[in-house]
């Protein structure tokens, strides 16, 4: 039931078959030729030699799988054969039905090594998460950090911010078929997948079509709880397998990164200086007054990417307005053109609530609400 034959191939320095003597095996001839070339390349790369001549014996079984069963002639290219030529010839003559070397074997072994390392890192992370945050040692923090540092959401943070966040991370187990939360609920936790697969339905309330994305180890979801707190979740995650999750509360960000938001706020003296200068008519402002306003507002987020001369030009013509608590700045719900604002707002102190209701790109109704603090703009 088998098909046997003797193949002969000569390899040049560029690893190309120069001559081959093959019987007519019909449709199997290209595969046998590829077997010779693949074997020659493997021998040259593994032994660090160049073959001038090679004769191998191959067998094709009933499953059309090619096996190398031996070799009758091996000649090394060069003036003096290396000492290992006899050993190489003896080894090839006693192959004994060994399958042909796979050129992708090295890449496959490297992939397996990476997967084993990921499993080890994930297991150490789960073990560290099960330790209460108050009892975690430095090695526990490093185990959690090693798993989360490759994530897209936390990986962009400097280690000085990322490591303190690892102290607040908690473990959560989600059985297969259960939801982490439902669409429309408010969440105060960010979730990171350690092991398992989670399918997030991005539009669970749509009847005709629902977009979904599958997340695996290292991926995160519910970022909305951090970026837009106190807003209903639009997606709904479902565990496709038994899943271990990292739960990171929003208060961890408030304690770790929250104090940095003070850099966008203005001191009381700066606000009074800006209010006094902007209360004057632009004609009455001197260049020194404009420079004072620019110096007092240069640290605000809006002016970070604006050239200094544009910044001073804006301060030269800007005005100052005060709104009472509960007063509406503008309302374009009716759609009239005169209802649209004719000014740009930069919040110096206090808080402004901005609400929007309309349609998104797919035609669905969309409602958004955002709170603007000192340093924000709209």
UniProtKB/TrEMBL annotation:
Residues 153-259 form the Cyclic nucleotide-binding domain. It comes from the Eukaryota. This is Cyclic nucleotide-binding domain-containing protein. The lineage of its organism: Eukaryota, Cryptophyceae, Cryptomonadales, Hemiselmidaceae, Hemiselmis.
